[in-house]
Write a structure and sequence with these properties.
Blueprint (H helix, E strand, L loop, with lengths): L1 H19 L2 E6 L4 E6 L4 E6 L1 H6 L2 H36 L11
Antiparallel strand pairs: 1-2, 2-3
Helix pairs in contact: 1-3
Function: Binds to DNA and alters its conformation. May be involved in regulation of gene expression, nucleoid organization and DNA protection.
Main location: cytoplasm
Pfam family, one: YbaB_DNA_bd
Length: 104
């Protein structure tokens, strides 16, 4: 029993490390604002087109930043969920026929 818990904890740490190395992207207004984040939802980079920045007002900039950030976070959540599901299926495979109970 403790072996399975330890194995699950190790698997979770492996997933976290893998997600740290996966980049996801979000952009707004055709790429004038670009956001790079990890699949662990850590923002790594924000790029704003200088021409847009010179001409944008504060409210427009804030709205587009929110759009780009949310797009990146949605992608991060999707990648994270996919990784978790794959891991859960791998672990359930170790329980023999019980793993098929959740696939039906």
């Amino acid at each position: 029993m403790f072996d399975k818990l330890f194995e699950a904890q190790q698997k979770a740490q492996e997933i976290k490390k893998r997600l740290d190395n996966i980049s996801v992207f979000g952009e707004a207004e055709g790429g004038v604002i670009k956001v790079v984040a990890t699949a662990n939802k850590e923002i790594r980079e924000i790029t704003i087109d200088p021409v847009f920045l010179d001409n944008a007002d504060k409210e427009e900039l804030e709205e587009l930043l929110i759009v780009a950030l949310n797009k990146a976070l949605v992608q991060a959540e999707n990648v994270s969920q996919s990784e978790m599901q794959a891991s859960a299926q791998d672990m359930l495979g170790g329980f023999g026929g019980l793993g098929n109970l959740f696939n039906k």
